[in-house]
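User: These chains co-purify. Model them together.
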Amino acid sequence: MASTTTDIAVTPEPEVITARRPAGALLRSALHLWRTRIGLALVVLLVAVALFGPFFAPHSPTDFVGAPNTGPSDAARFGTDHIGQDVWSRFLWGGREVLGMAVAATAIGLILGGLIGLIAAYSRNVLDDILMRSMDVILAFPQIMLALVAIATVGPQTWLIILTVGLTTMPRVARVARGASQPIVERDFVAAAEALGVPRFRILVGEVMPNTLSPLLVEMNLRLTYSIGLIAGLAFLGFAPNQNGADWGFMIQENRLALVSQPWGVVLPVLAIALLTIGTGLVGDGIARAAVGIDRSRGGE
Amino acid sequence: MRLGGIAGFVVRRLLLGVLVLFLVSVVVFAATQALPGDPARSILGRTATPASLKALREQLGLSGSVLSQYVDWITGLLHGDAGNSLAAQEPVSDLLGDKVVNSAFLVFLSGIISIPISIAIGSYAALRRDRTFDVTSSLTTLVFAALPEFVVGISLVVIFSTTVFTGFLPAITIIPPGGRPWDDMQAMILPTATLVLAVTPYVVRIMRASMIEVLESDYVEMARLKGLPERTVIVRHALPNALGPTFQVIAINLAYLAGGVIVVEYVFNYAGIGGALRDAVSTQDLPVVQALSMLIAAVYVVLNLMADIATIIVTPRLRTRL
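Assistant: Joint model of the two components:
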């Protein structure tokens, strides 16, 4: 879902969590929470399936191993799919594409959005307005709709899906980055660095950026969760780059007409996407809680 | 004076909304029509004859300069003429009329069900902070917020109609031509439940956070110290104030539903604009894609605008910043 909720143009600036501890300490304290551990275990499990699954697949994802839509048998552990390929093998092969594209898209959104947010906050002039208002225009579209418009013209190419998901993630990250760095650019140590003649770029990277890492870490998890859902969702709608490739989202689309007689072709990829997104969601929530916890304990110092 | 401030704010927001819609139309137009390359060729493929390419270009309105193409398109759209569908060879507006009603009903039903439920769960979780109910609801909302809505929809189908409880509820929503979605409410249950599960978590979370803030405020403490019954304190003093921030999230979620219907309608073969957009994208029916994305973007912008205005009205302290 739920992709667009906390990030519309009109929402108040996100709550600023400024932890002045390195990201490592934040992650360690997040790991004290059970939800982070469970989430991390789920993520590690599903990433392992996506990365190493193909080595354990009994068949090639495009081998025909039996009649279409048969139930589990000795030849095919979870039965065959809509044209008689092995469901289990396609499941083991099907995570790479979704995961790879989601990570790439999130990285693009995070880097561009982070830079734009930092520059906007640090510039403190008309550039701030220009940058953030252009981000608002992108936010005026539901993410999936913009991806569909692009696909309608160019077709479901890998680069196009990564790019549209990345670029529509960008303004959401930019808002968080700007919100987090705004109180920091006002601080004395930034003014001091400027007075000493430190180049502005070094101030941005060396002084301002480290202070925005924890909110960006939380945002990264949130965006990764949504990017996985969005990219798998596009494949489910039939817009996967590789039309007979094994892809969790696309598997659901291919096999859903036989849901009554052979549910495994749908159930396995649905479970995989569900556990993966729940995992990244739990990790994100754990980090967010840890970041707030750090702030609270600092409040007493 | 203060009202003038609000009116001024509303006018400025409206103008900004119009500006955003204009930019949206430019983006949609540019993405579908003015991209480098020839849309006619990309639709018909490399084997197309020059004559069929020319015919399609004319139908897409590709003759003339880019600017005049845009002006033609946008004036047509403003007059309710969105051109002809390439797939159905019919005016887009005829094709989509009923589907707009169907989608609006689905969104309306999901909103009307999810809003009271999520306000109730959120407030109760705040009252029972850190107890079993709160912990359970916070984990549940976390899980449902992370799940993509098609995963929720298909899981509901597997559980309630095809596999676990076979035939308990219809797996797809069939709206016969000329029929209305409310004629068969049973078929509405699963699509509505999917959208409700998709948006409820966000409203629950914001409601809980805002209720906790209000419960810790001085005026609630004052009301308690006055000896008011706890019930009155919560219903008369805490709840109305906690609803303020929630309004905005509710409007944003309704806006979200405008995008969320795309996938959910496809899951249930629901005859709405979301499913139609998906079909138009897969057949590269550009006039339909243009019209639908403008429509969805317009709903999105208008709901966000309403969220903005509602927030200002219910949160007086924000007015000083106008």
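DSSP finds twelve helices and no strands in chain A.
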